[in-house]
Design brief:
- The complex is a heterodimer of chains A (229) and B (439).
- Chain A is mainly β.
- Chain A has two domains: 43 residues, Single Sheet (Rubrerythrin, domain 2), CATH 2.20.28; 167 residues, no CATH class.
- In chain A, strand 7 and strand 8 form a beta hairpin.
- Chain A is globular and about 50 Å long.
- With 439 residues, chain B is an alpha+beta fold.
- Chain B has four helices and 26 strands.
- In chain B, strands 3, 4, 5, 6, 7, 8, 9, 10, 11, 12, 13, 14, 15 and 16 form a 14-stranded antiparallel β-sheet that branches. In chain B, strands 18, 19, 21, 22, 23 and 25 form a six-stranded antiparallel β-sheet that branches. Chain B has a four-stranded antiparallel β-sheet with strand order 17-26-20-24, with no helix packed on it.
- In chain B, a hairpin with a 6-residue loop joins strand 3 and strand 4.
- Chain B starts with 23 loop residues before the first strand and ends in a 15-residue tail after the last helix.
- Classes of the chains: A mainly beta (229), B alpha+beta (439).
- The interface between A and B is large, with 61 and 45 residues.
Chain lengths: 229, 439
């Protein structure tokens, strides 16, 4: 772990991973970007509302036999609630997200080198959403349609306009308050999960699965008075 | 934490544990009373425990969704109560009273929360309980007529409904208010039920598992429980008919094999024959046979016949052991009548008779026999023939064995069928009397 002085308050900002470029000071909530010279302030981040999530920065878990650790979090709001996107890094240096919504946990890792078929499907989604689902014609909505990602067929189950309300820890990109994302959730058989995120003019694809708490085999999670895991 | 756990991306530090549960509190915008949020970060809708106002608690700006103040109703399990189901502690954080579209049937849905394991529902209707979890899966469904597969089980369509939210209290991770409706389609594979709930733009699949009332009562320490009525849609049958039929079939097969082996191994040797014309003028009607030997303990099968015609004859047989004087007795009655009346010709009885002497020990025997007949009384001769064989396998025993083996499964099958009929009478697809389908 590396620690850098916060350009705003001088406190130490820990960077657990080498792959994260952005961070948030845990003391004064200054947003920073990391480069060769150290940290540079890019803005201020709101306080995260306290919640009953069992995860926290530094929590380790296992998915598909791969050990991962939690390095950061984005809290996303949408029309009907909010959810946590925990930034995870696996011990084989892959970047991913552990989506936590309504008590469901879906760890997933980014798919690099998308096939032409998947790119084409994503292109059509981008065209439809145009960066904002509210502007899309719901009669032509891709919800309910099927999409092939990495040889697996998924059903598009829901498309949300999301907005970052707060973040903590370190992140692979800048996620200031109010950053807008179109988040497309896809379900496969056997609890397989895929997510297509349209943001900042680009698209990222993640695949993973819905798993239960027990199978994540977590360490260094939060403990709550009166609750045992 | 061991640094080597993390390859190139070392975390290398144990985070400080957080001790307090994050209970969010704010004041009801309607009555000013305190509202407690137990599932902070998840809860969207909360109902004031003091005035019943439904508020949107998604963020700091708490707004009123439904200000129809309602009296707080007591429920069997109260908000905040905890119980352990299948080894996991759950806290009741929400309660919904739902009814069907016709408002004839009402049921309770308790929302359960555990910060690690997420949410479950505990549903009670007519004393039947289900623990329910949302399932994230792309189900392949073809209308509401064919079965749905889930984890190698086939679920059969059971009931379609439009439930209505009648009353709410506590807190929920979705927006809810009285009068909310949805379309549900239930499929059953006892003890499970798959329920698909559709609202515009969204479909949620849930897996319900039938839970014995005792387990719920013990989990939440409840004083009294609603009485169980009828058969629940996914109540497991107390008759494991498939296993019972399988074991009965096995038993029948084994009994058959044993029987056939006994047939093959049996000697079925004649030990004595009799073919005698009795005369009405005989000095005595009691005769004694020549001695014969039974080489080992065996049964003796005796078959007699006499050409009686509208007459009767009775052959009394007594087998006497020459050494021990042990006695075995058997009577062979032959009577045969026939005639004709207004219903046409009739016949009754038979001119033959048969029977067994069982467990006759090895030894030398003589057969004493006597005859009584109305033929002899009418001063006519009577021919009687008789054969005695040892080591004869009895089919009667076999059929008795079959009957005993199959009686229990047969009764169980009838009961199971009645149970299934009671289950399916509440369905959109009631079973017809003949349409018995035994899984």
């Amino acid at each position: 772990m590396k620690k850098y002085p916060c350009p705003s308050c001088g406190a130490e900002i820990p960077f657990r991973t080498s792959v994260a470029s952005h961070g948030i000071c845990p003391y004064c909530r200054t947003m920073v970007v990391r480069d060769d010279e150290g940290l540079r302030k890019t803005g201020d981040m709101a306080q995260l509302p306290d919640d009953m999530s069992p995860f926290q920065l530094g929590t380790e878990g296992t998915f598909n036999g791969v050990r991962f650790g939690i390095a950061g979090r984005i809290r996303q709001n949408w029309e009907d609630g909010s959810w946590n996107e925990w930034f995870i890094v696996s011990d084989d240096a892959r970047r991913g997200w552990l989506a936590e919504a309504q008590g469901f946990y879906a760890p997933c890792f980014e798919v690099e080198n998308l096939s032409d078929e998947t790119l084409h499907a994503i292109g059509k989604m981008q065209e439809w959403a145009g960066g904002n689902v509210a502007g899309g014609d719901w009669a032509k909505s891709p919800v309910g349609q099927r999409i092939k990602i990495e040889k697996t067929i998924y059903k598009i189950v829901d498309i949300k306009n999301a907005e970052c309300v707060a973040a903590e820890g370190e992140l692979p990109f800048s996620s200031p308050q109010g950053r807008k994302t179109v988040s497309i959730d896809c379900l496969g058989g056997d609890g397989k999960f895929a997510s297509v995120d349209l943001a900042d003019g680009g698209a990222r694809v993640f695949t993973g699965a819905y798993v239960d708490w027990t199978s994540l085999n977590c360490r260094y999670y939060r403990s709550f008075e009166g609750w045992k895991p | 934490m061991n640094a080597s756990d993390f390859g190139p991306n070392l975390f290398g530090e144990e985070p400080a544990p957080v001790k307090k549960a994050a209970i969010r509190k704010f004041n009801c915008p309607s009555c000013g009373g305190e509202i407690q949020i137990r599932a902070a970060g998840h809860t969207l809708t909360a109902i004031c425990a003091h005035c019943g106002t439904v508020v949107d608690a998604a963020d700091e700006r708490v707004t009123i969704i439904d200000d129809v103040r309602t009296k707080l109703r007591p429920t069997l399990i109260e908000i905040g109560q905890r119980g352990t189901l299948e080894g996991i502690d759950w806290e009741v954080i929400g309660y919904v009273l739902k009814s069907d579209r016709t408002k004839q049937y009402f049921w309770d849905e308790y929302l359960l929360f555990n910060p690690y394991h997420g949410f479950r529902f505990l549903v009670q209707m007519d004393g039947h309980w289900n623990v329910v979890r949302v399932v994230k899966e792309d189900f392949q469904r073809m209308g509401f007529v064919t079965t749905v597969w889930h984890e190698n089980q086939s679920f059969r369509p059971f009931l379609r409904d439009q439930p209505i939210v009648q009353y709410v209290k506590g807190e929920f991770y979705w927006r809810i208010r009285r009068g909310d409706t949805a379309t549900t389609e239930d499929y059953v594979a006892p003890p499970y039920m798959l329920s698909f709930e559709k609202v515009p733009g969204e479909e949620t699949a849930s897996l319900c598992e039938y839970t014995e009332p005792d387990a719920v009562q013990a989990a939440f320490g409840l004083q009294s429980m609603p009485r169980r009525k009828g058969v629940g849609p996914n109540q497991p049958s107390p008759y494991n008919i498939a296993a019972l039929m399988k074991s009965a079939a096995m038993a029948v097969a084994v009994a058959f094999v044993i029987h056939m082996a006994a047939v093959a191994a049996s000697a079925s040797q004649p030990v004595m024959t009799l073919n005698k014309v009795f005369q009405p003028g005989d000095q005595t009607r009691e005769f004694v046979s020549e001695p014969f030997t039974l080489p080992r303990q065996s049964n003796i099968y005796i078959e007699s016949s006499a050409p009686v015609s509208n007459a009767w004859a009775e052959l009394g047989l007594t087998l006497v052991n020459e050494t021990t004087k042990e006695v075995f007795e058997l009577t062979q009655g032959m009577e045969f009548y026939y005639g004709s009346d207004s219903d046409g010709p009739w016949r009754e009885g038979s001119p033959t008779a048969d029977g067994y002497l069982s467990g006759v020990p090895a030894g030398t025997y003589r057969m004493t026999y006597d005859i009584e007949s109305d033929v002899l009384q009418k001063a006519q001769p009577l021919q009687v023939s008789m054969t005695a064989k040892r080591d004869v396998v009895s089919w009667g025993n076999f059929f008795w064995t079959m009957f005993l083996l199959l009686a229990h499964p047969g009764v169980a099958w009838l009961r199971s069928s009645a149970f299934e009929n009671r289950r399916w009478e509440n369905s959109d697809f009631p079973r017809t009397a003949s349409g018995g389908d035994d899984e």
